[in-house]
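Office hours follow-up: a student asked to see two folded examples consecutively, so here they are.
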Amino acid sequence: MTQYLFTTPRLGFRTWQSFDLDDFAAINSDQEVMRFFQKPLSREETQAMMDRMQRMFEEKGYCYFAVDLLETKELIGTIGLGWKTFESDFTPCVDIGWRIGKTWWNRGLASEGALACLNFAQQNQITEVVSMASIGNTASIQVMKKIGMDFWKEFDHYELKNFPNIQRCSLYRIVF
């Protein structure tokens, strides 16, 4: 039986396992899912991301978690917290993010999962969480609003300087 760190009525949050690679690689290689990222990820890049998330969980006690749909035990993607240190006036910081396979879009799962992650952050004495998305990513910005985050500012994301079509980002935050 799968051990979850926490659950919502529909979702289970856990650390990454080797059996997640095929499903997560399929999500990360989808052009539509990755539209607001630098590029789709290869299987090797997906494995490296999973490895980074495991290390982050071991070091910080949080990461972008593997998220299962409880009803079917299918991996739907990732929702969770990350530690951001890229060059900006608001880093280092904890951010919240999500990447869900398009099969599961428009069901309220990102919002449900993100709210659970904000609760997890609070329980772990994290006092501020930010979230960022390219200004054209209206679906993610809508999730930020839906989970109670407030618009902070727009900024040019340093790590996206070679991707001008997605570099301008909206930054939201919530303080507990």
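And the second, which I mentioned at the end of office hours:
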Amino acid sequence: MTNDSFYKKRKVIPIGPVSELTGLTERQIRYYEERKLIFPERSERGNRKYSFNDVEQLIDIANKREEGVQTFEIRKDMLKEKNKQDKELKEEMLRGQFNAQFGVRKK
């Protein structure tokens, strides 16, 4: 994992600064969590913690909502994209296993 992706994935930002960064209200952010569009972690005290990736995701969600896209459509698209990424990862892993098994090497 590169340093860039490591810091972007760490869930350390409280909801207040996320609200300021995205221009969304805290209520809107909690609503997107309820709609399963964003998945913050919780601190020991139960406070939500977000990552920079979450902030980018929230901005994307807000832009789509401004275009009139409903939350269920956004979720459906997110699931399609995740399934596509999962499939690509699985294919890559299978290729790696096949190459290891049969000694195929990339040039």
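Two things to take away from it. The beta strands are 13-14, 41-42, 48-50. The helical segments are 3-9, 15-22, 26-34, 52-66, 71-102.
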